[in-house]
Amino acid sequence: MPEPRAAVVGSGVMGAGIAHVLAAGGSEVTLYDPDPAALNRALASIRSAARSLGRDVELLIGRVTTTVELDQAVGPAMLVVEAGPEIPKLKQELFREMERQTSPDAVLASNTSAIPIRTIAELVDSPQRVLGTHFWHPPHLVPLVEVVQSDQTDVRYVDWTIELLARRGMCPVHVRADVPGFVGNRLQHALKREAIALVYAGVCDVDTLDTVVKQGFGARLGVLGPLEQADLGGLDLTYQIHQVVMPALDNTPEPHPMLVEKVERGELGAKTGRGFRSWKQGEAEARRSEVNRALLDQARRRLTLARAQGPTITSHQQAERRFGLDGVLIFLTAADPGSAAETPIEGRLRRGSQLPVHRHELAGELLSVLDGELSLELDGRTVTLAGGDTARLPAGTAYGWRVTSEYARVLILAGPERASFYRDIGRSASDPVSAVGGADTSLADAALKNGIELLVDSVRGI
Domain holding 223: CATH number? Predict the structure, then answer.
């Protein structure tokens, strides 16, 4: 199963950035724009961004094809991301045409940051495959993608898109309702509304407002979310503060009068030289460069960490085999059979799926729970791993695990001996193992062949 092709419709700043991250993660991408000059600018932007992150520029660019023909772009694609202007009528017409040109199972996604997905899908006959993929600017530096489900979207397309984007190295989240602004922009603009109200009321000036955010709670927002912080501080404290603060917060139901006045006077911010603050020539460009350097440093740290933890799954790494533990499908991928590199194994498992307690003296593995929850038995201790938790399981450790949530997505990084064990189990997937007590079971055979000791006294069966 080769990785699915992708298409990006629109080659502006966001379109180029989306094509970059999809190609960097291993997708073959076709970038469409009716303007050849815009496509050339997009390729130059992708090259520059790839160099800044230390990526293999030619390998990445080699995965990007450009075209001025929409059908050539979207026809072979299983994921189509529209990144055009924020004009509802234009998007509606574009989606109707993309629906006509694509496979009936292709996902049609919009990068809109505000327009409801149901509105975008008004003219299509298959709204169940239309969803939002709200990337943040710039996509190659900001990993979040809001995957937005309308009331017409089939959740299977949402799950598929989230899994694909996660494999591409992004951080996709599921937005379960098609509300204006989704999640990120609602939070961002709720803060802006209160910020404008505080300055308008004379509580503080603009510099003070921005300093409080940057040097105060904003400094921790990258590592601590607001509800996480509330839990750590205690909900009783949050409740007490809300009793005092909530009645005083601004609740203007439309754009604040101060913002309206500035727009009407032509004070539009850096591009006109004046907004909430004054901007001299060159100051805006310098500030944007400073912000981008900070984002670039963060992105480089993420890439360094990812490379240290294991290989990135790229398009040349084919899904070698689908196999089952207790009848649950797992995807085994490897760059080269017999490679000494760690092999990524990714799977979606249902409740009760398990790997029995066992020990391998030669090789360990890294077990990461991407979503869901499992119970890990580790040297006689029971540990719960939930979404985002990772366990490093060294050689010689006795361990096994069992899925305790409705389903779980796991990523295993295994050395060659461990990968061979999983591969050998897969060869008999058509006859899933029902017990581990007998030497004639496929699991026992695979364990014996790969030097793995099954601790059968600890296991009732799988």
Answer: 1.10.1040.10
